[in-house]
């Protein structure tokens, strides 16, 4: 805070220092003009010689120098006075022009404007009084994340190095104001100004295009704000390893992530489908052809994306043909040298006999062209298309590939699931390790319960803040099982379309998809999936005493005290009669 | 180490000294007697004091800040004195009478004190630098 105050002062002093010379010249020219005017002889009304006093001279020079010009007061000037006034005019006009010119030049100075902008930004961040996320890089991913954070009602602060992207922040409509600055996020003092050490900083998200900048952000976050979790994008393995070496909590490599996903799809298709359904794709139990086949594959391109997939497919022992114009020296797969967009090259790679194709070049147009050509040659192909730019999504939607991979979306989804539902990550890892039959069973059970549409994924902690009534109920020593709670608060004979995916006890014990008879305890963290609208019903049951009593016991508790007393009397009467 | 003489410091010292001497020149004399206090000297003291202030602008050191502050005080006092003079000689019915003169001179006396402080700072700064 002290440092930022000093920065502000340095801007102020810079302006003063630059204005020093013009102001001195202005004062000097005014002083000479006034002094001269008091010395030059004039003629009074009555023809007597008379000189102007300082008061009149200053008055005259003031309105002449500023080009207001009221004329010759208090008397008509003598020729000598007029001669001096000519000098005065040129002297003072030059003085004023120089001063104003310097001031305007100074205010339009790029560096100075940047310094002012930085200062305004730092002040806006300093005055934030609610938790916020520091988002470094406002590219496609940053935009997705900022929009999602905004919708979740969380604040964000943006640092972006590119001015045109910065300007877009104002164009995108956000509910809350997003303080943003155009600066290099790799510099620790910028991160500091952006609130890295602010007590309300809830996390740092490093999403810049440059791996080394992301690395610098990770290091700064680790050293300057140890308690603040950092989510960092890293596309090169060595950078990711470097980040991991000093304990960066979440490293997101979009290409590796997709490689893992593909590996999962090939190994345990049901686990893949389950996670895919939970993260936003409609599941349909009637179509089974959306699972990548274990067969012959053609991989177009040999960049970071394709290389990751090839490793995964090698592990699964699939037959691969790679199409790329420049193969490496050591070839360990079947290579077709050429441009994958051409029909001839695709035929040489055996597109007619292949089961799947991966359009994985770093050009969206090439990928679109590959898919269209390949599908004409073999309509039954399973297509995985890489979409590099989010802006091309309309084209890829029409293309309707079996799987479209958008790196920016992969990163954004991962970040958001970490931020909004921290339990989703351990859940995902547990599902990955689970067996195929178990996953198939859960997928079937959950989609029957919740429906085939994308479920709402959310987390809740059983404490006084989030589940007041339930916490009190548990504190009284009464037992609540998961199955008892997940009933509709309007009619308790029907179950809520809601399921607990993951349960984490306060003592660290974790249960994957706990059974209905699992007892709940205070301090439990739950990850839930629910159909649209069921979330608010369950939240009501957990927070409201009466609703909870009804859901758990079936007893209708009357609302007010009077009704409660009457209710109590009626209950005792009923007991007497029995 | 002996600091090299540079023009900037000469100009700076010159204006500070000149502001103090002009101010003193205006101040000395019978406090109520307008004949002892020349308005040209007041004008010169005001202008030189303002230039001295401007010369101090933008100095970020602690001593520079004190310099600027005392100088601003001197400016303010002299400006007030000039305004009283303007009022006395052009607006008030009594003209430049002893009472008004006393006011003007006492205001400039305050400015003189600030100017003396400025000079003391200048000298002490120089002595400290020589060490």
Question: What does it look like?
Answer:
The complex is a heterodimer of chains A (578) and B (131). Chain A has 578 residues and is an alpha/beta fold. Chain A folds into four domains: 2-108, Helix Hairpins (Orthogonal Bundle), CATH 1.10.287; 129-252, NAD(P)-binding Rossmann-like Domain (Rossmann fold); 255-420, NAD(P)-binding Rossmann-like Domain (Rossmann fold); 455-562, 2-Layer Sandwich (Alpha-Beta Plaits). Chain A contains 23 helices and 18 strands. In chain A, strands 5-4-3-6-7-8 form a six-stranded parallel β-sheet, with helices on both faces. In chain A, helix 1 (2-39) packs antiparallel against helix 3, helix 10 (254-267) runs parallel beside helix 12 and helix 21 packs across helix 22 (545-553). Helix content of chain B is 78%, strand content 0%. Chain B has helices at residues 7-27, 39-56, 62-91, 98-130. In chain B, helix 1 runs antiparallel to helix 2, helix 2 runs antiparallel to helix 3 and helix 3 (62-91) runs antiparallel to helix 4 (98-130). The longest helix of chain B has 33 residues, at 98-130. The termini of chain B are close together. Classes of the chains: A alpha/beta (578), B mainly alpha (131). Chains A and B meet through helix 1 and helix 2 of A and helix 2 and helix 3 of B. Chain A: InterPro entries: K_chnl_dom, NAD(P)-bd_dom_sf, RCK_N, Trk_Ktr_HKT_K-transport. Chain A: One of its GO terms (biological process) is monoatomic ion transmembrane transport. Chain A: The chain crosses the membrane at residues 21-40, 52-71, 83-107. Chain A: Its main location: membrane.
Overview features:
heterodimer, A: 578 residues, Helix Hairpins, Rossmann fold, 6-stranded parallel beta sheet, 23 helices, 14% strand, disordered N terminus, B: 131 residues, 4 helices, 78% helix, 0% strand
């Amino acid at each position: 805070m002290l440092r930022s105050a000093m920065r502000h002062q340095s801007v102020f002093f810079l302006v003063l220092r630059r204005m020093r010379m013009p102001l001195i010249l202005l004062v000097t020219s005014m002083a000479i003009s006034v002094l001269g005017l008091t010395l030059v002889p004039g003629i009074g009304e009555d023809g007597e010689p008379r000189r102007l006093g300082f008061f009149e001279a200053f008055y005259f020079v003031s309105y002449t120098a500023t080009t207001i010009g009221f004329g010759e007061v208090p008397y008509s000037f003598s020729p000598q006075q007029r001669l001096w006034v000519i000098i005065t005019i040129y002297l003072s006009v030059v003085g004023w022009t120089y001063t104003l010119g310097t001031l305007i030049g100074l205010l339009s100075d790029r560096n100075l404007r940047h310094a002012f902008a930085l200062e305004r930004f730092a002040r806006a961040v300093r005055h934030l009084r609610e938790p916020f996320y520091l988002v470094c890089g406002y590219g496609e991913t940053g935009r997705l994340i900022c929009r999602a954070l905004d919708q979740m009602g969380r604040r964000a602060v943006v640092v972006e190095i590119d001015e045109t992207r910065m300007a877009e922040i104002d164009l995108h409509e956000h509910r809350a104001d997003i303080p943003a600055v155009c600066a290099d996020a790799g510099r620790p003092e910028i991160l500091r100004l952006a609130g890295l050490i602010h007590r309300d900083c809830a996390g740092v998200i490093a999403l810049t295009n440059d791996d080394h900048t992301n690395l610098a952000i990770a290091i700064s976050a680790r050293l300057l704000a140890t308690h603040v979790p950092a989510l960092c994008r890293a596309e090169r393995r060595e950078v990711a390893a470097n980040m991991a070496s000093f304990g960066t909590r979440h490293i997101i490599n979009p290409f590796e992530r997709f490689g893992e996903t593909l590996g999962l799809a090939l190994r345990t298709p049901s686990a893949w489908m389950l996670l895919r359904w939970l993260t936003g794709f409609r599941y349909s139990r009637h179509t089974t052809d959306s699972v990548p086949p274990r067969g012959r594959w053609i991989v177009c391109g040999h960049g970071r994306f394709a290389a990751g997939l090839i490793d995964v497919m090698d592990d699964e022992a699939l037959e691969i043909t790679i199409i790329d114009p420049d193969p490496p020296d050591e070839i360990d797969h079947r290579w077709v040298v050429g441009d994958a967009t051409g029909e001839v090259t695709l035929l040489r790679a055996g597109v007619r006999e292949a089961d799947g194709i991966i359009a994985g070049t770093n050009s969206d147009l090439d990928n679109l062209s590959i898919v269209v050509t390949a599908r004409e040659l073999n309509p039954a192909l399973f297509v995985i298309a890489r979409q590099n730019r989010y802006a091309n999504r309309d084209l890829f939607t029409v293309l309707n590939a079996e799987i479209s991979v958008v790196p920016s979306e992969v990163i954004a989804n991962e970040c958001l699931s970490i931020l909004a539902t921290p339990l989703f990550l351990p859940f995902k890892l547990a599902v990955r390790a689970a067996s195929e039959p178990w996953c198939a069973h859960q997928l079937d059970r959950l989609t029957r319960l919740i429906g085939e549409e994308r479920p709402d994924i959310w987390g809740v902690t059983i404490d006084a803040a989030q589940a007041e009534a339930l916490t009190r109920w548990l504190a009284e020593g009464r037992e609540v099982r998961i199955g008892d709670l997940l009933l509709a608060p309007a009619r308790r004979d029907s179950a809520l379309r809601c399921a607990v995916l993951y349960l984490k006890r306060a003592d660290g014990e974790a249960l994957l998809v706990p059974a209905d008879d699992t007892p709940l305890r205070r301090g439990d963290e739950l990850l839930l999936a629910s159909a649209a609208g069921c979330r608010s019903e369950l939240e009501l049951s957990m927070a409201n005493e009466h609703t909870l009593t009804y859901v758990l016991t079936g007893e209708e508790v009357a609302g007010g005290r009077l009704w409660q007393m009457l209710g109590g009397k009626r209950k005792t009467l009923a007991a007497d009669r029995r | 180490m002996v600091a090299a003489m540079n023009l900037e410091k000469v100009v700076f010292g010159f204006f500070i000294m000149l502001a103090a001497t002009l101010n003193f020149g205006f101040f000395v004399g019978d406090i109520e007697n307008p004949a002892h206090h020349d308005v040209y000297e007041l004008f010169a003291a005001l202008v030189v004091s303002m230039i001295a202030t401007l010369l101090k602008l933008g100095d970020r050191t602690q001593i520079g800040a004190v310099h600027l502050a005392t100088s601003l005080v001197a400016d303010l006092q002299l400006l007030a004195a000039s305004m009283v003079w303007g009022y006395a000689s052009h607006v008030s019915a009594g003209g430049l009478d002893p009472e008004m003169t006393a006011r003007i001179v006492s205001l400039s006396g305050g400015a003189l004190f600030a100017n003396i402080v400025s000079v003391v700072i200048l000298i002490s700064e120089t002595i400290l630098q020589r060490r």
